[in-house]
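Our consortium's second objective concerns turning raw sequence data into structural hypotheses that experimental partners can test. To show how far this objective has progressed, the report includes one record in full. It was chosen at random from the queue rather than selected for favorable results. The single chain below, 224 residues long, was entered without modification.
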Amino acid sequence: MPDTLSPQELHNMDRDIPRFRIFGPDETVSNRLDAVFEATDRSWMADTLPPDTNTLLSVVDHCLRSRHYVNVIVAGKQPALQYLDMEAALKHCTAGIGIWAWASNDRGSEPDVVMACAGDVPTLETLAVVHVLRHHAPDLKIRVINVVDLMKLQPQEEHPHGLPDRDFDILFTPDKPIIFAYHGYPWLIHRLTTHGQDLPEIRNWKWSETPGQPNGIDERETRS
């Protein structure tokens, strides 16, 4: 056996007894993984962040039924609020992303700001912020968008779950400021939302674990 094998050669050797898996980032060419796809198709990853129990049940049911996907479910273990009944949860999870009209006050018109969130705690934080804003700035038109499937943020040509540019603009608008609550790397949201046009500024919260903060959220959070 040679000292070094290309990814393609490794996969060909593993074809008869498939035990070898390659996990790679999105930059398949720069990481020299493009040769692998000459030997095999890729399996897509689905990264889901249900905001409450009913959406979690819907997501788990979908993941258990799916095939040829790597499913990642991000969910908390603490008691949390329930936002959607089961029927609404199924509809929301099937779409993977959607406007929460009951939490918004733009009433189908152009909002002044888009408050987006992905994950249980970020959703709670976003709804709390919206409550405060509606109290202190009642004329501010706010649109709340909840994201269950992060891959919905990608362009359609980049991922089978991705949105066409037109649908993305309908949700997020082409030119309104977006504040995105997500407990992860801010650059991930920026990279997923590249839809071939100049997007409005997207702001994320940075957070770090601090002694005395039970949820690991720093009181001195700064926006990226």
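The partners drew two points from this record. Confidence is low (pLDDT under 50) at residues 211-224. Helices lie at 7-13, 53-65, 86-95, 120-136, 165-172, 186-192. Both points have been shared with the crystallography group to help prioritize constructs.
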